[in-house]
Structure formats: structure tokens, C-alpha cells
Amino acid sequence: MYYCIGWPRVARLPQDEPGTPVQVSCNRDRILVAVLTTDSVLIWYNKPCVPIISHRRSSSSILELGENCILVWKPDSSMIAVVTTGGHVVFYSIVVLTEVKTLYDQVDPSNMSLKRESAELYFKENVPPLIFSQAFEISVPGGVTDIVTIRDELMISTKDGHILRYMWDGQLNRDYCLDLRRIPFCTDQQVLRAVPLVDQGYVTHLSYSPLLGGFTIVLSDGRAAFLVAATLKFDPNSVQGIWAGGVEDITCTASNHKFRLMGFGRKNSQGIVYSIDETTGGLSVSHKLILPTKDYPGCPGPVTGLRWTPDSMCLAMVWAGGGFSIWSTFGTMILCSLGWDHSASITDPMKQAPYNIIDMDWAGEGYQLWAINSAERKFTGNQDAEFCPFPKEGEEQPDEPSLMGNNVLIIPFVKSPLSVNPAMSALDKLYLQGEDRLYLNSTENVSSIPLTKAETAELKSSTSANPQSSASKQWTVVIIPHTYISSSWPIRYTAMDDTGTYIAVAGRTGLVHYSTSTRKWKMFGNETQEKEFVVTGGLLWWKDFLVIGCYNLTSNRDEVRIYPREARLDNSYSSVEVVEAQVLLINKLEDRLIVYCSNSHISLYDIYTEVGNPPVSRLSRASLEDDPPWNVQCKLRKVQDVDASLLSIHPACVVSVSLSHLKTESVRQRKESERESVERELRNDTASLILNVSGKVVLVQRERTNTDELLYSAPTVLAGQCEQVWLPRRSCSTKPHLTLSLWLYCGAAGMKVWLPLFPKEGESQHSFMAKRIMLHFPLENIYPLSIHFEEAIIVGVENDCQLYPGNPSGPSILPFTTLERVSQVFLQQLLRQLIRRNLGHHAWEIARSCITLPYFQHSLELLLHSVLEEEATSKEPIPDALLPSVVDFIRSFPVYRETVVRCTRKTEVALWPYLFAAVGSAKELFIECLEKKELHTAASYLIILQSLEPASAAKQHATLLLDAALDNGAWDLAKDLVRFLRAIDPDECDEISSPRATSVLPSFPSPLSPAQAGEEDLSLVLGTLVVPRSRSISTNAPPKTSPPEHQSLSRSMSEKQPRLRKISSSSSPNTSRDGANGTAEEFFIDMILARHARKLLMSGNLVDLGKFSVHLDFYLVSWLRRESSRAALLEDFVWALRRIHSDFSWPWPTGSSTSGSETRSRTSSHPSLGDPTLGVEDKLRTLFVDCGDRPATESGYMSNSTGRQVSEQSLLSEHAVDAMLRVRDRTDQLSVLSEDQDLGSVCDDSHSASILTSPPPPTFTEASTDTPPKQEVQLRYILQIFVEAGCLDWAISVAVVLRDAMAIIRIVNAARSAPDAPKIVRRLYDGFIQLDGYAQHTCLGYRGFLNSIQPQIRSLSRFVNASPPSILTGKTPSRSSLTSSSPPLRPSLPRSLSDPKGTGSKTPPRSSPSPPSTPGESIETEEDPSACTIS
Asked: If DSSP states are collapsed to H, E and C, what string results for 1359-1391?
């Protein structure tokens, strides 16, 4: 409610060698501030902060009367009474000198460069010249302990046990003096049991409250009481004392007028607040002010001062050990200076505390806290002589004086507009008001560009649909114009409209309003009109009009005025409604205005608009605007007047008043639902009154009787100790529970919600079922200033501090306080309270309406976590546990499993058994996540299972999750799981042990800690698991050399990338700890990866196969070499062609066979290559072959050597081209070109040199522009992989899809040079026959390309015919022949080892019929017993 801002200021006393300040006190208007020192009295003007009077007593007077100690103002500020230590009271008179207009004249210097040119450098406020003189002095017998004013008299307590009453003229009113020994004291107002004081005691502190009707006193023995009388005259014969029971260590007291509370400070650094029990008349404890240990764990000493703010909304409390705190009315701590960061130089916050406040008072509407800081410390902590945990070394250091010295500090504050204008409770925007500026948090509504009328309408709609973000931390500071605030300081009331665009500000006189869209102020053009009225009852916006309750100084009457927003501020545009008494509060409900006046009458008005004729003076300006509403006037029509004098003791005790459609149950039929009730009330105009009277929320319903007469029923008290009341501004049909409820904040007691209960659809309302229920839940670390009902968020503000280097003796050494917006979700609190009351259906309805909120799952997690922490850590047995009901409730939502695992990982391991006893086994939840394909949630459960189960069980579940992650393409998760499996110690898996004890934490950092492990991250867990192991599996180790038996293999370029990867034990024997176990573990993981790779390959999922190899560092080329004669074999090339088109989303070629764009090679030949009318010699002249830097003895072709310029026309960059893989052909292999009889004439050196040195410019065909470039890069990379691995079946299919003629030549060349060339060539030839038949009958787009590669197909046919029949018709080659042609990285394994399940992924059925097989195809159908080919 009240928050510090910035640095405090120091008021330098204008004296030579000033005395020590002892007290500060403000007059009733809080414009004049009196500072009392031991020998003088100084009076300051608050704004501008300048001294007016400095009166110092003579040394003889001090010796005779004593030093000054207490000061008190007369209510009319005409006199000051000063108490001295000698038991005297000195009276001073104050007279305003009318002959002089102002005390300070503003004179510009003669230097022209120093003259003030800005109006802000001049203050318009006239500082009154005062004549201060000593009137007289009196001697009080017995010595004065305290003094207070009661109307026109002084109440003076003495050390001899009397309370004397003096007039301001010095006369003693003996008839009304009190003697404590004659006053009966009891615990309540039953006089028969009253007993007078027996012990000799006297009053040390006094506090008077006219609304309480008595005095609060503190006795010298530490007891406290409340003195009350039958009449306000305080006749000694009728005065009775009521004890404040339960305490005997009271130090000071302060009274709250509006809420009728009595606050007391105690020696144990706590505060206690009492209220009057209306039943017995005794004092009952309202709440206690206990300093939280998170702000200060020790005892800062006795409470030395308490001061309520002028609006009675907050309490300031200081301690003898230093520091101050601000508390709300009913006990919520808003800030505490002991918890601030006071730099590293302050090591002992008790002996080195910067603040050492001995007295304070609020000034200027509560925007300033004037405090007396003392350099001498009176309390530095209590020490127990019998307990000394640490021996003292040397002499004890003396207490350091306060850094601020003996000075007067002015601590600035800002406050919420709710403290003075409760009508702003319906606003969902957040802003604060200072003495001369506003702090706006709705930053998204602030714009520096003026908006048009259409943009303004759009802004309104967007603002209402999308409220301000709860995460916004920025504040926009809006300075009040100096022209207005210089004469109307300080700000009293502010009001913001529903959209957050317009803000009205009312100071001491008049008002102004501001537009956040245009950043312009609108003020009165006539300053006289601005000074003629004072806003007394607040202000609010109704549509485009500003409604205020004010007092007219000119005509001496109270009014309700309405000013149009679009017109200039002028009384000629306003509408005036005269009221009978001073307006205290105003509020609205839709088109109804409620006005509460000082005569305790509540008036209801209808607000409406009407069109009238504008004055002539408005016509000229109206013609300049597009559509100005100058002729629209707002009117009030009084509909009812209600006398509410019986609801409150005094009109000032009414904190807020509002209208609402909420009602309690009545005698009408219960079948009517709440929704129907609200609709009927809107039609019948039966809105209820809701009043907050001294913290009690009273509901007065208005109902229509059978005679169709509207009457108010008896008032109903809904709650007590209420500080703020919130009513939703509008109802929402999708969230009726949240927007048709009443919200009450009760300080330390938390939040109370009067929630509607709607019956189920089709269910009759039971007679015992109430329509509403009052729910209560605590609020921690937030004071609510705004509630977003539909978003289920409470928004507040808290203080933060920053340190800046500065003068060590000035205020800059203190922390610079700033404002920070905070928010809290309250959905889980409502759900918990409903579930506790067995209202799960209503809780489910509320949760279902909020399921779209982004933090809905977080709310469920908070619900589960709070119940778990409370019940699992309870020392007492819980008869009716709430956790099972909460678990059943969360189970009805799809985020149940994820909510449980998130809550588990943020909870101590010792509490896990209690949680899983309610939610079920973690294994079952893990299996459910796998079935629902919630893989990341399952990974979180795996971390939990790692702590609950043995390592073997964790390995088993990790294997299941790895299979699911691979099947669903969760590559990052699969990579982490592979690392997780490799980090498991084989020795732990071999041990047969019981599950790990959950109550014992591991010696290494637990992976369950939220600070070290992310929600779905396994990598950090792996790191902690590997730390105590001895084997090395570092992912940063460079690849090691292959074993000696594999030295004949040459790594391809794709495997020689500088990539850091984990080396398995199968490829590096040094990574195994003991050889056999390490090899088995690594082989188990490699077997899983190889099985999945085989599954992807046989199903034709080449895209997933590529991603699989990249994310899991899987050596695809080495594996494909082993599978080239097994899983990589193709039976149906047409099916492979279709799979490639489908998997890569590759477009099918057009069906025109005569078009040159369809018969030419797409990437490795030029347009003339596919033209059948040209000769072979002309075709080869246009070829551009990139031979790179390979030696002359090496031959080969690159599939990416194309006719287009890669750097400009393709995604293949220069680096990507250099990284492409090339085939190293043997030197004794035959060239396909040399076998064609008609190619001999074009192979001379001159033509070759011409082609290599001057490549022709690339030309793109029409078909190539339709191909996706990203997929083309992927296909070419896959093609290179297949060619290097010797998987020529798939290579042919990919090359045909790419229509790459040079790749076909390269593949045919490799097939003819292979050791088992007859079989491979035969299989490729059959594949070309299948594709050619498919192109001739189904896909005509490939016919042109297949015609262009007929020479290669014919070469394969001649090779097959030239091969010996024994090879073509013989049996399948033996294992040795397979090994020589494609040596594997490890020995070939039987099927039982390579596929533990005994079954492999079946090849999908081929949709394309294969062409008739030739007699030699019998070789392809026979399987090698040693191969794992699955047909």
C-alpha cells in the first residue's frame, strides 16, 4: 500500500551548533512540521521544504525549566505546547503576518546567464510568514510523562499517577482530572467485576481517538489499558479502564481512527493490535506484528515508536536497535529496512545500522515520513552472560554511531490509489501515486504517437481483451505539470479509466487529467475556476465523462460534478448535482452512481446522456474536429436515498461503499441458478449495497416483495478484518465462478473469496446446498493491489534496493529504493479449499474454465506440492489426508503425469514414498507415458526411477524409452539416453540389490536438484553419474585410430569430419575398463542403434536415417558397408523410387517425353546432353567434370560436379561442395566410356583440356526450378553415402530421382569393378528393367531420362552376358567373399545376436509389380545363411 522510493533527504537545521533533535510533529493539515530539539523549536513548510521559524531558548531558561522533550500542536495550529524535563509546559503562540504576502521572495541575479527562464524554477506557493512568540509557561506537579490534545484541551499524564486536563490558556480543569487509583479496571465493561489499581504506577504513553471514544494508555509496569467513559466529556465518575490482556511488556501505543484499532509496541520487538469486542466491550487481539525471520532473524530491540498513516491504511514501526518497517492495517508487512542491502561495510546490522530513528510523523498525505535520527545507539542487542558460544578476543569494540548522525530525515513514499479512492478496486491496471508524479505499470498502453479515433477504439477493444501482462516490470513516471502541482500540492485523489488510457488527478484544489496515448495534460483554462472547488469524495470515469465529489468554496455547498473528457476543462461544460452534505465516497455499477455523504446517507443516481445545444463559444472549436461530442451532456437522476447511520459509529469509519448484483440466499425459489439470478437482478434493478465499515464487510440486499415494492433487508456481515474489497468489473460466461465472486483481503489472515456454487446441469438444487461459500487462503510475500479475475493472478508491488557510491556521511550511502511489480497465481488456492470441503465438482469446473491459461499446469503443480509438503512433514497424524483427493482431482486432466513428475523432482527425495503411495508406482507412470508417447515426461520419470530402483531396472526402462524415442524421432532425447546407458556401471547392473533407500541422499550432487538439472535434460545427470566412475567415456576425446585388423579400411570423407563424439568400446579397446564387460555394454547399445537403422533402411525412411546418424553420431557408411549385401538389398526398385519421392516430398517429373527439359541430366549435364538428336561427342563437349586435386593416377567422378554454379544458384556452398564425399576407384578398373565403340573419337587430350579449362555457363531447366533445394542437398548427401558404402541398389534409386546421368555412370563403374560384380551388375540391370517398365506404363516423366542412360544399361547387359554362367547360376558367395568385398568393422554375427528378438522389420509390400525375371534372377532370391537379409 505504501512503498519507499529513492533516497531520503536530510533537513539541515538552520542553526549554529544546533541541539540534538528529539521529536518531530506535524499539524492537522500536515503542511507545517515542527522539529523539537533540546533547546529550540523549528517550524518547516512542507512544500517547498523551507524553514519558517527557528526559536532557541536561552541557557537560563534551560537551566530553570529543563530541556525540551515533547511537543504538541493545537488543532487549529495557532499554538504549540512544549514539555520540558523539569515538569514545565511552555506555550507558544503562532500568528500569520498578513502584511507580508510571502516569506521568501524569488529574485533573479543580475547575471543574465543565471536568470530563470523556466516556470518550473518558480514555486507559486506562498510560504506564510509566521510570528512565533512564547505566551506563557506552567508548572505541572509530579512531572510530565506524556501529553495529547482532546478537542480544545490538553490531557497531561504525570508521574504521580494522575491525568490532568489543562485548557490552552493554561487553566487547570480540576473537575475532569483523573486519578488512576480511583479508576476501576477489568477485562471488559462489566463494572461489577472492576477492581482499581493497587500497585503504584503511572501512565508513560497516551493516545486519544475520538472514533474509539477513549484513550489507550501504557503503564509504567508494562501493562496497557483502554480508558473509556459514558460521555465524551470524560467525567471522572464514569471513566472505566479495560485491560489489554496477555501482555506486560508494552512500550508505546498508537490509535487507528478509521478502523478503530489500538496498536501497542512490545519489548520483544513485536507489535500487537487490539480491537473492541462489541459483545462484551472488552479488548480482543486483532493480530500481531511479528518480524519474519527472512527479513531479520534476530531481535532488533524494543519497539520505540508507532505511527499510523493519515488515511489509517498503514502503520510505521521503529525499533531501538535501528530500522523501520511498514505494516498494513491488519498485519501484513509491506517493507522492512532491516532486510535491505547496506553494502559490505556494514557487517553487524545492529551495531552499524544506518537508521536509528527515535521519533517520526507522517506529512503531506502520507507521501513523506519525517524521522528523527539519533547518532547514539540505545540498544545493540541482548547478551546472555551464561551463554557464550564464541570466546571474545581482546576488548569489545564500542558501538559505532549512526552514519546519518543527529539529523532530520525525510523519507519519500508512494502509495496505491486504493488507499484513498476505493472505486479503483474494479480496475485491473496497476499504478501508484506520489506527491507530484504517477508511476504507471501499464507500459503497453503508453505511446508517444497521437492516435486517431479509430485507433483509440481499437486500443480500447484490445486492452479489454488482453489485460496488461503480469510479467511487465517497467514503470512509466508521469510528472504532474508544474503549473498545477505548484499551487495544489500534494496529490490527493487519482482515477484511471477502464482502458488505462486516461488518468485524472486531483490535488489540494481543482483537477487535471492526462492521456497516455497522446501524452498530453488537460487543465483548466481559467485558474479561478480551478481554485474554487476541492475534491473531497474521490473521482471516477464513466464512459467519456469524469465524475467527482467536491466542495464549492465560492458557494459553500457540496456537489457532484461531471466533466466531459473531450471538451476543455471549464465549468460551462460541466453538469452539477447539489448534495446535502460533504461527499466522502463515490462508486459506480454500470449506469448507476452511488454517493456516500458525511450525514451517513447513501444516494443512488442514474447516469445518462442527452443531446443539447452547445453554446456559441463551442461552435468555433467544434467545427475543427471530425466528430466532437460537444453537444452531449451527462446528467444525474436521483432514484433513491438510504439512511445508513445505524451501520457505523461515525461516517469516517466507512472505508468503502459499492454496488453489486451479488446476493445471499433468500426465501425465493432455490431452483434459480446464480446466472439466472444475476440476469433477473439486472432487469429488476435490485443491486445490493456492500460497505466496509471499520474492517467489517456488510451486505445490504435490495429485493422486490410480493407487492412489487423494493425494500432493503437486514444487513449481513460477510467478513471481518477486511482491508480491501474487489468486485469484478464484468462477468465472463466462460469463467462465472471467478467473475461472479466477492474478493476480500484481510491482512495477515490472507484472502477471502465469496464464491458462487452452481448446481450440475440437470441436477435439482438440494435444500441444504448453499449458493455461495466463503473460502479463505493465505497470501505470502505479496500485498494485493490488483486482481486479474479471468487470468487468476494477483498483482502487487514490493520494494527493492540498489547501492550507489556516494558521500559516506550523506543519505546517498543508504540504499536507493525502487519499485518492482510482483504477481502470484491463486488458482491452486481456490482448488485446494474446494477439494478440502468435498466440493471437487466445483473445483473441476473452475479448473476446466482455466485450462487454457499458460500456467495452468504450474497451478496444479503448486497444488500438489503444497499439500505434499504440509502432510509429509507433519509431526502429528493426519486423520483425513487431503493428498489422495488432490491426486484424484489432478488425474482428471491430461497433464497429470507431467504434473506429478515435475512436483516430484522439486521435492526432497525423502518425501517421494509418501507421494508415490498416493499417485501409484513410478514404473506404471513411466509405462503410461510410453503408451501416450509422452517421451520427455517419461525421461523425467527415468531420473526418478534411477533413485528408487536398482541400476538394472533403470537400464531396462532406459532401453524401452530409447526404443520409443528412436521410433518417434526424438533424436536429442535418444542421444541423451545413449549417454545415460553408457554411464551405467556394469557392476551395479550385475548386483542383485534392493531399491535404493530414498531417505539417504547420495554423496555426489543429486541429479534431482532443480538447480542442477533441467526439466527434460539428461546430460547433467550423466555428468554426475560418470564422476565416481573410473572408466573414461569423455565426449571431448578425439577419435582414435582403428584397430590393426581394420587398417586396410580407409575412412570416407563423411566420417573424417572434425566432430567430437563418444568412442564406443568396440572401436577403441582402451575405453573399456575391464575388457569383456565394457565390450558387452557398448555392443548392447550399438546393437540397439543398428537394429533401428536397419528398420529405417528397410522401410525406406531415408530422411529419418540421415537425422538418426547425425544426432546420434552413428557411423552410417561403416554400417552400410556391413549391410550392403543384407538389409541394403532391394527387390523392388519401383517401391524404392516411390518411397524416396514420398519421404523427401520430391515432385514427380512431368509426363512429356519429347521435352528437352525432361531428357537431360538435372545436375551433372547440360541441356544438350539429353537431346537425342545430338551425337555423343556433342554431348560430352558440354560436360563439366570437377576432378578436384586428386592425382593423375586416380580416377573418379563427383555427383555434385554439375553444370550450375553452386555458390550462386544452389544451397550447396563452396564449403559444402568441398565436404562432399568421393569414390576412390581402383586403378585397374574398366571405364564405362571406353567400352562403348562410338566414344573413341572424343577421348583425345585436346577435347579433354578444353572441357576442363573452359566450362560452359550453367543453364537451369524448367523442371529444376520446381525442386525443393533443401531436399536436393539431402538427396545428394544420401547418394554419396550410398555410393561410398557400396549400397548401389539404393544409390541407383536416388540417382534416378535426381536424374543425375553422371551419378549413374559413377555407380555403374563401381558395380563393374566390385569383386562380386556379376551379382551386383545383374541386380542393377534388373532394377533398371523394373524402372524402365514403370516409366513406360505409369510415370512418363522418367522415360526421357531412362532413354538418355541407355548406353549404361546396355553396358550392364553386355557385362551380364559376358560373365561366366557358373557365376550367374552358382550359389550365394561364401562368408569370405562377402568379407573381401565389404569388410565389416566387427565380425559378422548370426541373426540371433544382431536381432535379439529374432524378428526384423519387414519390408513394406511393394505396390509396383516387378517386370518378368530372367533365368539369371534365381541368384537374387537365394539368401546367404550368414547374412541377415530380410525379404
From this structure: HHHHCCHHHHHCCCCCHHHHHHHCCCCCCCCCH
